[in-house]
# Entry
Amino acid sequence: MAAGAHLVYSSVAGADRETGVAHFASKARVEEYIWSIGATATVLRPVFFMENWEYLLPETVNGERVVSLALDADTPLQMIALADIGRIVADAFDKPSVFVGVTAEIAGDEVAVRRIGELFSGADGVPTRFVRRAGEELWAEVPEYARMYRWIDAEGFRVDIDALRDRYPGLLTFATWLRGRRS
# Structure
């Protein structure tokens, strides 16, 4: 890296835990390398992106949206909006004396899967419900996703959202993100 350079690396929350999820482990290896070479760096570990819902929501059929997801309806899912990640990254670049050498997990909201469906229904008027996708089906199609969802279901992300909101009170909640998405 050039003199005076500051690397801000986007990893994943839970990278430092034994998740069994290969793409989490690969991010942990990158983090280890960054620190081993003595880089002037900040590592941010975001959770599930709110924008993932743009790809996960199926089309409306017969006036209803049914989402098949390999999570229990009561599983709390921590999420963050990409715009919030951008704001935190900008803060890291603006305040290197505060952020250099820091690893921080970041999230903006935590919502149970069942509630996510209710929020979508309220935002766009399309009844939305979740059905639990059979793990075996997902294992056959995309084992990496099956491992990730199994881990989220069993352990999940553990970001202290209240503490992060103290520093960034404007973090988007999922409901706020949805309203912005629909306008």
